[in-house]
Structure formats: C-alpha cells, structure tokens
C-alpha cells in the first residue's frame, strides 16, 4: 500500500498534538467521478486549523487537519490524476483548492472546489490567498455589501485576512480604518491601503473611531478577534450599521443580551465562509474573481513565513501568539 506524509492529531490540545506521520495511506485510484488528485506543494495555515486542534470546533479523532465537511483548509499543488467527468483540469495543471486533508502530501479534491493558478501566481502565493481572500470577499460582498464612501473598521489589519479586507474594501471605494497592535503592523496596514490606522496598545479604539467618523461610527465592523473586542466593536457601529463577528482569535464571544442591539438598530451577524459560499458555482465565481484581482495586481498577498511540514506545531504557536503579519504557509 502506497503511503504519504501528513500531519495528524490523536487528541485535542496544544500545538504539540500536531504530529507528522509518514505512513498515512495515499488516496487510491481510480478517483470518484468529478474529483482530481493533487500532489500538494504548499498548505495555508489558518485560525480555523487552531480551532480544530484545540477542540473549540469538534472533529473526529484521529484527525488530519482539513478532514472536515467542505474544505476547512487550503493548499496548492499540481494535478496528478483526474476522475471521470472532469473536463476543466488535466494532469500537470497548477491549482489552488479547498478540500479535506491539506496538511498532507496528497489531497483528493472535488474539481468544483479547485481553481487554476495562472503563471503570474506562484504555488507559494496561491497558498496564501485562497481561504483568507475568499473570506474577505464573502464578508465584503455578501455578508455586508460594502459601498463606496462607507467607513469600514477592520481588526487585525496587518494579518492575512485583515490585509485582504483592507485591499478589497479600498478597491470598492470604502474609507478603511485598520486596527493593529504595533507601529510595525500599522505600517503594513497602511501599505495595504488603510486610510487610518489605530494602534490599540497606545490608542483608545472607540475614541479614535468617533473622531475619524465625526461621532457617527462606522458602517461595518469586520471583527475576527472575538471575545476581547466584541463590546468595543459594537460601540463603534453607527445607527443601522453592521457588526460582523467572524473569528475567535481571542476566544469565543460570550452570550450577549440582544437588547444591546436596540439603541442603534445594529445588524449583528456571525458569518461563515462555508455558509456564505456553499455551492461549487458560488465558489468558482468568487475564486475566479479573486484570482483575477491578484493577477491584475489590484490585490496582493503577504507571506509572513514558510514552515516545513514537520514544523507545523511552531506555525500554530506563532499564529496564536498574535506576533505574525500576513500569511503562514507550510511547505509539504
């Protein structure tokens, strides 16, 4: 039986639970109809991976990160085989995909959740853009349709999703306020296009937002931080504005009193990429638009660091520390 290397989790917990195995069964041929086999070159590291590992999101054990309903992880690589009824890909194609088991040497991928990478986008860059880029597009195009001239508040604006949100909102014509933890990260947010940057370690977020918006607040808050930022985010939203709490970087948000939404008639949403983009057709439409934005240099990616697969625990540790900027990826 042919085997491959992959990261597995036998029990939930700390990053040390991520263990490299070289004896995982390789996906077998023939493939199911409509699927492709990809030899992965790089895999993206995302906060959802840490939620699975820590037990915040429940998964069956033993578990290879990504072995979850519809594509919780991303990777790039070369097509090694195609199943019946696949007409959009051929052996040797360079692709990015969302699919099960991407912390692995090989992935079996539904062709509808893969997209061609043009020659202008390397496999490294491709691994840094798909999940976070699609998240940013779904948040700003579907969850709240950002309009030109609107004020958009983006938490963790120097992170992977944050930089994508800043760029995409600026492309629409919004006035973007980024939030970061340091002067170094503030510069990255400005480079991404943020009109204003608030450094929360030295500035009062709510006071600065009210100053920038002439006391009105923002039209939309994109908050991927979660527990520690929720109340401040809600305070920064203007009347009839949108509060999008899409992440748990600081922990799960506590239950809230719905009456808090009443005074300003705030729209509160807990958006999920895989609910906003739940069909292959929706994925293909948004993914191709994202690829075109990157290809035409309207959106760029920023890779913080590339780790060897065996160093996956370190990548999780670094991501959870809050010290990183941009995207972390694994070399398979």
TrEMBL record:
Q: Which UniProt keywords apply?
A: NADP, Oxidoreductase
GO molecular function list: mRNA 3'-UTR AU-rich region binding; NADPH binding; quinone reductase (NADPH) activity; zinc ion binding
What SUPFAM superfamilies does the database record attribute to this sequence?
Answer: GroES-like, NAD(P)-binding Rossmann-fold domains
The segment(s) forming the Enoyl reductase (ER) domain are: 13-330
Q: InterPro entries attached here? A: ADH-like_C (IPR013149), ADH-like_N (IPR013154), ER (IPR020843), GroES-like_sf (IPR011032), NAD(P)-bd_dom_sf (IPR036291), QOR-like (IPR047618), Quin_OxRdtase/zeta-crystal_CS (IPR002364)
Pfam families from the xrefs?
Answer: ADH_N (PF08240), ADH_zinc_N (PF00107)
Query: Gene3D superfamilies, alphabetically?
Result: Medium-chain alcohol dehydrogenases, catalytic domain (3.90.180.10), NAD(P)-binding Rossmann-like Domain (3.40.50.720)
In the UniProt record, which is one GO cellular component term?
cytosol
Q: Give the source species.
A: Batrachochytrium dendrobatidis (strain JAM81 / FGSC 10211)
Tell me which domain of life the UniProt entry assigns to the organism this sequence originates from: Eukaryota
Keyword Translocase tagged: no
Provide the protein name.
Probable quinone oxidoreductase
């Amino acid at each position: 039986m042919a085997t491959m290397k992959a990261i597995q989790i036998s029990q939930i917990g700390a990053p040390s639970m991520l263990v490299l195995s070289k004896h995982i069964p390789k996906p077998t041929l023939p493939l199911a109809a409509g699927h492709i086999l990809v030899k992965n070159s790089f895999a993206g590291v995302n906060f959802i991976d840490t939620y699975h590992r820590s037990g915040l999101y429940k998964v069956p054990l033993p578990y290879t990160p990504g072995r979850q309903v519809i594509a919780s992880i991303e990777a790039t690589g070369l097509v090694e085989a195609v199943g019946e009824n696949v007409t959009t890909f051929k052996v040797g194609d360079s692709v990015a995909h969302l699919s099960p088991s991407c912390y692995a040497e090989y992935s079996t991928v539904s062709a509808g959740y893969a997209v061609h990478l043009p020659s202008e986008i390397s496999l490294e860059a491709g691994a840094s853009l798909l999940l976070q880029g699609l998240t940013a597009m779904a948040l700003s195009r579907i969850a709240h349709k950002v309009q030109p001239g609107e004020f958009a508040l983006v938490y963790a604006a120097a992170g992977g999703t944050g930089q994508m949100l800043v760029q995409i909102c600026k492309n629409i014509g919004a006035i973007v306020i980024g939030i970061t933890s340091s002067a170094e990260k503030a510069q990255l947010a400005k480079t991404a296009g943020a009109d204003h940057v608030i450094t929360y370690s030295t500035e009062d977020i709510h006071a600065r937002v009210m100053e920038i918006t002439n006391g009105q607040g923002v039209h939309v808050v994109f908050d991927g931080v979660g527990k520690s930022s929720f109340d401040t985010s809600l305070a920064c939203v203007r009347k009839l504005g949108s509060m999008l709490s899409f992440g748990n970087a600081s922990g799960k948000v506590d239950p809230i009193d719905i009456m808090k939404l009443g005074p300003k008639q705030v729209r509160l949403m807990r958006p999920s990429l895989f609910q906003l983009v739940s069909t292959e057709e929706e994925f293909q439409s948004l993914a191709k638009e994202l690829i075109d934005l990157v290809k035409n240099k309207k959106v760029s990616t920023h890779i913080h660091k590339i780790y060897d697969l065996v160093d996956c625990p370190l990548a999780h540790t670094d991501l959870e520390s809050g010290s990183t900027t941009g995207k972390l990826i694994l070399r398979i």
